[in-house]
């Protein structure tokens, strides 16, 4: 039964649906799990990854479906909503289906974006737990990350206060850390611009080491990226030990292993390898695991969740962050390479409003009403924006995949507008389906489900964009030209020097190329919409995530600590003091 999404808020729909949500014990029976494979956390549960993957190791994988999008407006175009709707639609068709999505950050939840749980009748439940910490993975990652900084700053204080003989008595060797080359900062899971640049250690000799430091948002932590790409606990432990925290005064890396803190970090994160099991409002299973930044890290639900999902379900739907230029490109060339998993189909989520924006429509500002151009028929504006959709279709097809375009329907979309998008998508070689999952749930997603089932029967000639042996600068060049549509790449002298050093060092030969770019444009400039022509991609730096094994070319200006808006969501969140229920989440 679909709820009246035009009258009920998301948290009200969630509250109604949660009354009949399966319990952990019911999930055991419904999914054919063993009792010891489910770890209860109140009314939700985690799945014991190691036990399930061992028991099902010989079972063939199900169909693998990835969900991406066109270049979005600042409001987002509903990838999670589409993911939930597709799962519900496949469920209505009687399929054994599940999904993997990312855990939301408290920063966007309490700021502008909201919970990222989907919306309307295409929603993940229980919504309150999903939005406010879930089963503690983010807290464990924050503790593990900040423990590395505790180890670093304590070591710097002790090395300043004691000579070599005194350090030896304490079983410490001098690391001689350069305070101007500390790579890590601290993390907190809120958008706190006041913490972007700070001074720590103010006080006496016993109050730490005084130096400049910084905070990032928790999901930007390298530890979160590591969780997303780790294949098991052993892999997680090894990657944690390779994290570069700082450099010494000779330019050598100082790692978490050097600080003898990697084991303790893994102890904090030992339970994070187990995905959390949630549900759609129509009671299909949804795995929630990891939530890395999409424009500086991999931006995907985890490899672990996909490995379990493909064994448990006949159709497994996974979600990538942002548009196909970022999310799909990293799924295609990084996640699939690391996991060895090959998708059957990619769903490109599109909205009429976003295409109108790319056609030259007025600026879309979160928290303000949409201009009339987005809520009234305007075929001329829409047609001018369609090249952005066609660009993303072409990107998916370069991977050897036949995409399905999902028009995430709004009630203001007209038949003529929908027909225009369908015509262009099909001319570009993609299937195209209109979906009303927000309004009608699974019943509204049947056309989308049928298109995806049909596409899953296609043969896939999957191929990477570049070989792993290709040097870093050539990889960046091919991504810029083939995925973004740039004419070429320019490097600052500092960035090029770093790139040359990485290319000449065999230790970095198998590091993934993790492009850092705005999600609001195909270019590095968020103000350039549509499909810009005649531009050069500037690379100003290359970051190293040695634990995750990422080299991150930085384009444009990307902050690891977003800011809180003047009208954040937390102004509307409250608790019913009579029942204890959380109100106002969206």
UniProtKB/TrEMBL annotation:
Q: Which residues form a coiled coil?
A: none
Query: Which is a GO BP term held by this UniProt record?
Result: tetrahydrofolate interconversion
Q: Example GO molecular function term?
A: formate-tetrahydrofolate ligase activity
- The record lists ATP as bound by 73-80
Query: Cross-referenced CDD domains, in alphabetical order?
Result: FTHFS (cd00477)
Q: Which residues cross the membrane?
A: none
What are its E.C. numbers?
A: 6.3.4.3
Q: Does the keyword Ligase apply?
A: yes
The protein's annotated catalytic reaction(s) are: (6S)-5,6,7,8-tetrahydrofolate + formate + ATP = (6R)-10-formyltetrahydrofolate + ADP + phosphate
Would you identify the family this protein belongs to, as annotated? Belongs to the formate--tetrahydrofolate ligase family.
* Protein name, UniProt field: Formate--tetrahydrofolate ligase
Organism of this sequence: Desulfofundulus thermobenzoicus
Mind giving the lineage of the organism this protein is from? Answer: Bacteria, Bacillati, Bacillota, Clostridia, Eubacteriales
């Amino acid at each position: 039964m679909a709820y009246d999404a035009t009258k009920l808020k998301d948290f009200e729909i969630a509250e109604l649906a949660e009354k009949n949500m399966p319990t952990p014990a019911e999930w055991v029976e419904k999914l054919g799990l063993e009792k010891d494979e489910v770890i209860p956390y109140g009314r939700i549960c985690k799945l014991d990854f190691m036990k399930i993957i061992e028991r099902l190791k010989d079972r063939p994988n199900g169909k693998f479906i990835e969900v991406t999008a066109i270049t979005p407006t600042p409001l987002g175009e509903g990838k999670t909503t589409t993911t939930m709707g597709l799962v519900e639609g496949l469920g209505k068709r009687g399929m054994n289906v599940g999904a993997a999505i990312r855990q939301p950050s408290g920063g966007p939840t309490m700021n502008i974006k909201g919970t990222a749980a989907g919306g309307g009748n295409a929603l993940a439940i229980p919504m309150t737990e999903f939005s406010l910490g879930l089963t503690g993975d983010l807290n464990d990652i924050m503790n593990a990350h900040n423990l590395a900084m505790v180890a670093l700053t304590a070591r710097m204080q002790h090395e300043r206060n004691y000579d070599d003989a005194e350090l030896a008595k304490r079983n410490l060797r001098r690391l001689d850390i350069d305070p101007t080359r500390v790579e890590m900062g601290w993390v907190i899971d809120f958008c706190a611009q006041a913490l972007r640049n700070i001074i720590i250690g103010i006080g006496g000799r016993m109050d730490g080491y005084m130096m400049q430091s910084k905070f990032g948002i928790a999901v930007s932590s390298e530890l979160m990226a590591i969780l997303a790409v780790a294949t098991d606990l052993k892999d997680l432990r090894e990657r944690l030990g390779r994290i570069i925290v700082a450099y010494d005064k000779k330019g050598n890396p100082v790692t978490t292993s050097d600080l003898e803190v990697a084991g303790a970090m893994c102890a904090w994160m030992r339970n994070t390898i187990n995905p959390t099991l949630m549900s759609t409002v129509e009671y299909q299973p949804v795995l929630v695991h990891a939530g890395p930044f999409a424009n500086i890290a991999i931006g995907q639900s985890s490899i672990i969740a996909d490995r379990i999902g493909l064994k448990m379900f006949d159709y497994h739907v996974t979600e990538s962050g942002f548009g196909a230029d970022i999310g799909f490109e990293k799924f295609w060339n990084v996640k699939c390479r690391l996991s060895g998993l090959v998708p059957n189909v990619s769903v490109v989520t599109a909205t009429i409003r976003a295409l109108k924006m790319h056609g030259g429509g007025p600026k879309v500002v979160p928290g303000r009403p949409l201009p009339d151009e987005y809520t009234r028929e305007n075929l001329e504006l829409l047609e001018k924006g369609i090249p952005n959709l066609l660009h993303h279709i072409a990107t998916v097809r370069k991977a050897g995949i036949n995409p399905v375009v999902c028009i995430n329907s709004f009630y203001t979309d007209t038949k003529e507008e929908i027909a225009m998008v369908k015509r262009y998508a099909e001319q570009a070689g993609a299937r195209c389906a209109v979906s009303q999952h927000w309004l009608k749930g699974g019943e509204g997603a049947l056309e989308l489900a049928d298109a995806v089932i049909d596409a899953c029967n296609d043969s896939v000639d999957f191929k990477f964009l570049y070989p792993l042996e290709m040097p870093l600068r050539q990889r960046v060049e091919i991504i810029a030209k083939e995925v973004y549509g740039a004419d070429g790449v320019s490097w600052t002298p500092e960035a090029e020097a770093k790139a040359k050093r990485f290319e000449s060092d065999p230790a970095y030969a198998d590091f993934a190329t993790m492009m850092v770019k705005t999600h609001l444009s195909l270019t590095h400039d968020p103000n350039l919409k549509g499909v810009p022509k005649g531009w050069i991609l500037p690379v100003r730096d290359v970051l190293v995530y040695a634990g995750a094994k990422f080299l991150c070319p930085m384009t444009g200006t990307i902050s690891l600590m977003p800011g809180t808006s003047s009208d954040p969501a937390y102004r509307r969140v409250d608790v019913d003091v009579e029942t204890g229920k959380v109100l106002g989440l969206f």
